[in-house]
Amino acid sequence: MSRHPFWHYDDQMPPGREFEIYHPTNTNALPTIYQSHEFYELYFILRGSIRVIVEEMDLTPVLGDVLIYPPGCMHRVMHTDSSTPYERFYIYLSKPFLQSISTEDFSFTAELDRLTGGGRRYFRPDEQQVRSLVPMADEIVEGAKDGSPTGIIANRCRMTLYLLRLLEVLNESITPEADGASSRMSELIRYINLHAAEQLSLDGLAEVFAMNKYALLHEFKAHTGMSVYQYILTRRIALAQQLLADGAKPRQACEESGFSDYTCFYRAFKARTGISPARYGREKKE
């Protein structure tokens, strides 16, 4: 099966899985491809040198930094120094799981959405606070080996307590300076993300940003590693995935994600996910 060089579908949680947590260390170069998930991903840098592109932001995280990728968020990670071990934690959290551990007075999804509101994806808490979370996370990794009913309940409790502590740490890290000013390409990507379901053209984007369209193409490719067309297409597929997962019919997802032709939508969706829109929607209902 062919794969689009800028799209990665395989890193998805199996259907019905509540959460997954990993603590890997390696020195291998990571694939420079965009990813998008239907779940929340929490990413912690513990050691190494990387570059991260998260939608409109081009970041160089350091030890202790935390990134949050909400559902549908476009991101890619590049390991920039293979001579240095790269250690990180990353956690996948499904919406149903977060809803199940929430209460009438406290919603984990609402808290994560508030933290990432306005495009915030990047947090720099106190390094020691992040380090203090590592033993808690390792307990969850170890606890996942116990698949008994009581073991599963115990690990859900560990994850709940971990998330409560993590939210506290992240909230304390937010400062007015954290958001910073966006570059021209960051603003362009932000614009595309907001208007992906609408009719977009290179000429139109060049006019909005008062740029020569050839200069725009060159700068965008240098910033993202993708052409403007590839990014828009990938963004629309990510939007269609969300719509299908939420119960939309394939043709409705086609129209509401910015495609004007169903045949083109079907081919693009299957090329990037490996399955048809209808099958994708059915699998999300199972």
Short description:
With 286 residues, this protein is of the alpha+beta class.
3D structure, described in words:
By secondary structure, the chain is α+β, with helices and mostly antiparallel strands. The protein has two domains: 7-178, Regulatory protein AraC (Jelly Rolls, Sandwich), CATH 2.60.120.280; 184-285, Homeodomain-like (Arc Repressor Mutant, subunit A, Orthogonal Bundle). It has helices spanning 95-100, 108-115, 127-143, 149-173, 184-195, 202-208, 213-224, 228-245, 250-256, 262-273, 277-285; strands at 7-8, 19-22, 25-26, 34-35, 40-47, 50-54, 57-59, 66-69, 75-79, 86-93, 122-123. Strands 2, 3, 5, 8, 10 and 11 form a six-stranded antiparallel beta sheet that branches. A hairpin with a 2-residue loop joins strand 6 and strand 7 (57-59). Helix 2 runs parallel beside helix 4. The chain is globular and about 55 Å long. 33% of the residues are buried.
